Structure formats: C-alpha cells, structure tokens
Amino acid sequence: MNLLIDSHVLIWWLADADPLSRRARSVLEDPLNAIYVSAVTGYEIEFKRSRDPFLGRLPHDLEQVVLDEGFRWLSVTPGDTITAARLPLHHRDPWDRLLIAQAMRTRLVLVSADEGLAPYGAPVIW
C-alpha cells in the first residue's frame, strides 16, 4: 500500500507517542508499505517548531531523519497547489488542504486522525 502521512502522524511516530492508533502504527511498521512524507509536512513542522515545545524536541535534521526511517519525501507540484486551492472549503488548514490534494492526485492513502478530511472522499486510515 502507498501511504501519505499527515504531519501529526510523522510527529507522533518520531516521538514514539501514544496518540498513534493501532491501525496507523501497524501500516507504518509494515515493510510492504511505501510511506511518503510531503514537503508540506517539513515546512509545517519547521514553521511551528519555535513556538511548540513538543516540536522543539524533534530531531533538527528532519530531512535526513525521514529518510532514515525508511520514508520517502513527496515534493509539492504546481498541480498539487492548484488542486488544493480549488477544493471545497470543508477544511481551512492550508497544510491539510495540500496533503489531501496530494493524496488525491497521486492516489496515496492518507494516514491521519483528522476527521475533517473525510468529506473530500480520499481514502484515510486511522
């Protein structure tokens, strides 16, 4: 299965935090799954890092840490941004809108606890 993980999923995974559901942890641990992290997630984490003590404890070499975890970076394309901008306003968070657009365009299953993503109809695991 090809998965795109939401920012909070990456954060909880790296912090080995309890909020990950059993199903989310299971798909992340399955070596048969390809796990993608959007460049949007890198931006969101670094943008918020200085204001969030929890994020401040994450490794600073996020780009390499993601690769060390066996995950793959997913670049943001112009098509992703255009699709995100055209989505109905079910969800107003710009980072999440970009993630849902990427999942839809690349046919990745989104791993997220965010129930606000469901109205877009893309597959979401939690």
Can you describe what's shown?
The protein has seven helices and five strands. A five-stranded parallel sheet has the order 3-2-1-4-5, with helices on both faces. It is globular, with a radius of gyration of 14 Å. The two termini are 14 Å apart. The mean pLDDT is 94.
Summarize the structure.
By secondary structure, the protein is of the alpha/beta class. 48% of the residues lie in helices and 13% in strands. It has one domain: 3-Layer(aba) Sandwich (Rossmann fold), CATH 3.40.50.
SSE inventory with pairings:
Blueprint lengths: L1 E4 L1 H9 L6 H8 L4 E5 H11 L3 H4 L5 H7 L3 E3 L3 H9 L7 H13 L2 E3 L12 E2 L1
Helix pairs in contact: 6-7
Structural class based on helices, strands and sheet pairing: alpha/beta
Going by CATH, what is the homologous superfamily? 5'-nuclease
CATH architecture: 3-Layer(aba) Sandwich
Q: What's the helix-strand series?
A: EHHEHHHEHHEE
Beta-strand proportion: 5-15%
What's the helical proportion of residues?
40-55%
The biggest beta sheet, please? 5 strands, parallel
Which class in CATH terms? Alpha Beta
Are there runs of 5+ residues with pLDDT below 50, and where? none
Kindly give the count of domains. Answer: 1
Radius of gyration: 14 Å
> Cα distance, first to last residue?
14 Å
Mean pLDDT: 94
